[in-house]
């Protein structure tokens, strides 16, 4: 595999990052994941915009223009013959002597790599749906910034696996915030309910597109928090993320939703999302 590190395209074995990198020492960095379908990037502009915002919120300089970033993404797709999969991008504040204060003159570390996932859009899991458990949301208060601090979400996925489930929905003050790596939705009486934007959740790029398509298709959308009990009583549920697209949820804490199979709203939105995004892919 060819990866990108600070301006160079290198075989993965030759790519190096300093042990003093603040991403490694302090999780002082941000990331993005963009899906690739048929060799093209899904919603690249959305990811580039959110990256710029994450960097700005952390007072980190943006080392690349959107055009440069797009060129690197495309070059990696080409060099790795990537058809279906994803591109991971990470920018950290760089390498300096260890210090809690932000360094004045560190150069950001930019890393990108590809991961091939043949048949990504035909994921058979979408036909059966996933099971989630609920866990307390004990993450920090700026979840709108896409930082590389993924330890708790990682622990959440492990808790889900140990409980025989696929993922965890995190709960704060009795309300669902989001999934470990995705935004969470329920459907009741045809209405799609998902938490409003704020510092409590990541502003999903897929969320934004899916809500737009839902409204265009005259589906009713309500952006507000919901509780786990409300979710358990819902007709259906689903999650969205750049790599899962729209994925039905069929069970919450062992309680089956509706018929216990993927719901019509989730399946329809998945189809619309994939159709529209493939058409707009770059
Ligand atoms: N919330 C969290 C916590 C996430 O990690 C992700 C995926 N990175 C999402 C939501 C979904 O965001 P997107 O649709 O941009 O992938």
- C-alpha Rg (nearest Å): 19 Å
* Gross geometry: globular
The total count of helices amounts to: 8
Mean of pLDDT: 98
* Low-pLDDT residue intervals, each spanning 5 or more residues: none
The CATH topology name of the largest domain reads D-amino Acid Aminotransferase, Chain A, domain 2
Largest sheet: 9 strands, mixed
Question: What series of H and E elements makes up the topology?
Answer: EEHEEHHEEHEHEEEEHEHEEEH
- Proportion in helices: 25-40%
* Total count of strands: 15
CATH superfamily heading of the largest domain? D-amino Acid Aminotransferase, subunit A, domain 2
Bound molecules: 4'-deoxy-4'-aminopyridoxal-5'-phosphate
The percent range for strand residues is 25-35%
Cofactor: pyridoxal 5'-phosphate
Catalytic activity: L-isoleucine + 2-oxoglutarate = (S)-3-methyl-2-oxopentanoate + L-glutamate; L-leucine + 2-oxoglutarate = 4-methyl-2-oxopentanoate + L-glutamate; L-valine + 2-oxoglutarate = 3-methyl-2-oxobutanoate + L-glutamate
InterPro entries: Aminotrans_IV, Aminotrans_IV_CS, Aminotransferase-like, BCAT-like_C, BCAT-like_N, Class-IV_PLP-Dep_Aminotrnsfr
EC number: 2.6.1.42
Explain how this protein is built.
This protein is of the alpha+beta class and 282 residues long. The protein has 2 domains: 117 residues, Aminotransferase class 4, branched-chain amino acid transferase, N-terminal domain (D-amino Acid Aminotransferase, Chain A, domain 1); 156 residues, D-amino Acid Aminotransferase, subunit A, domain 2 (D-amino Acid Aminotransferase, Chain A, domain 2, Alpha-Beta Barrel). The chain is built from 8 helices and 15 strands. The strands form 2 sheets. Strands 7, 8, 9, 10, 11, 12, 13, 14 and 15 form a 9-stranded mixed β-sheet that branches. Helix 6 packs across helix 8. The chain is globular, with a radius of gyration of 19 Å. The structure holds 4'-deoxy-4'-aminopyridoxal-5'-phosphate. The site of 4'-deoxy-4'-aminopyridoxal-5'-phosphate has 13 residues, from helix 6 and strand 13.
């Amino acid at each position: 595999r060819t990866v990108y590190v600070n301006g160079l395209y290198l075989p993965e074995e030759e790519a190096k990052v300093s042990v003093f990198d603040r991403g490694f020492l302090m999780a002082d960095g941000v990331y993005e994941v963009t899906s690739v379908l048929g060799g093209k990037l899904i919603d690249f502009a959305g990811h580039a915009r959110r990256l710029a915002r994450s960097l700005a919120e952390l007072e980190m300089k943006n080392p690349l223009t959107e055009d440069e970033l797009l060129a690197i993404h495309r070059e990696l797709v080409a060099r790795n013959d990537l058809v279906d999969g994803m591109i991971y991008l990470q920018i950290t504040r760089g390498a300096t002597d260890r210090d809690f204060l932000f360094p004045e003159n560190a150069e950001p570390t930019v890393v990108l790599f590809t991961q091939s996932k043949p048949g990504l859009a035909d994921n058979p899991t979408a036909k059966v749906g996933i099971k989630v458990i609920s866990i307390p949301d004990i993450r920090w208060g700026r979840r709108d910034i896409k930082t590389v601090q993924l330890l708790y979400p990682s622990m959440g996925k492990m808790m889900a696996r140990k409980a025989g489930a696929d993922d965890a929905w995190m709960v704060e003050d009795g309300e669902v915030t989001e999934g470990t790596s995705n935004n969470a939705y329920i459907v009741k009486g045809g209405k799609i309910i998902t938490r409003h934007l704020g510092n409590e959740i990541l502003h999903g790029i897929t969320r934004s597109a899916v809500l737009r398509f839902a409204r265009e298709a005259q589906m009713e959308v309500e952006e507000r928090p919901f509780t786990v009990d409300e979710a358990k009583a819902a007709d259906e549920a689903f999650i969205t993320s750049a790599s899962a697209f729209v994925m039905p949820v069929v069970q919450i804490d062992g309680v089956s939703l509706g018929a216990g199979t993927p719901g019509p709203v989730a399946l329809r939105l998945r189809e619309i999302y994939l159709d529209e995004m493939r058409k707009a892919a770059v």
